[in-house]
Design brief:
With 36 residues, this protein is mostly helical. The protein has one domain. Helices cover 69% and strands 0% of the residues. The chain is built from one helix and no strands.
């Protein structure tokens, strides 16, 4: 189901996926600023 879940996701996995998404979004923002 995703990078941090095996099988059906539960609440813990769901929060970890959301945190991973936030970290990836921050990284993308940093990288896009450097290219300008």
């Amino acid at each position: 189901y995703g990078p941090v879940s095996i099988g059906s996701p539960d609440e813990r996995v769901e929060s970890q996926c959301e945190a991973l998404g936030r970290r990836v979004a921050r990284l993308v923002k940093k990288l896009s600023k450097k290219e300008r």
